[in-house]
Amino acid sequence: MAAFANPPYTARALALANATGATYTAAHIADYIPLSDGCSGKVSWLYKALWGRDISCVQCCYLHDWLYMLGGTAADRKEADKLLRDCAAEAGYFPPGWRGKGRKAWRGVRAWLIYGAVRVFGGRYWG
User: Fold this and answer.
1) What's the whole-number mean pLDDT along residues 48-63?
2) What's the predicted TM-score (pTM) here?
3) Are the CB atoms for 45 and 19 separated by under 8 Å?
4) Spatial CA neighbour of 114 closest among 75, 61, 67
């Protein structure tokens, strides 16, 4: 099973998915990872092309993609998008030299850019 970068967000995703009485586990998410494109909109591809690695919040994108695959109500979609935003705001690693406020500021900007993108462009992929 794949290890998740931020276990509290795995628990939050499972709580959202199981709110209707389902019994999903982290194993269900891990089984979905090979089907996910990571962070959509060519974000994962761009990071790999430029830096040779996944974007640091790719685990957040896996959780978000899994929730999108499950679908649900419009309120569920909004919660899935908030989960992605909050997770991306905490996830990350940086090159040597990036310290303190710069890291936190970049995570916040990245999180809100991702959130805006999924709110505007993600609807057609829900469910």
Assistant:
1) 86
2) 0.85
3) no
4) 61
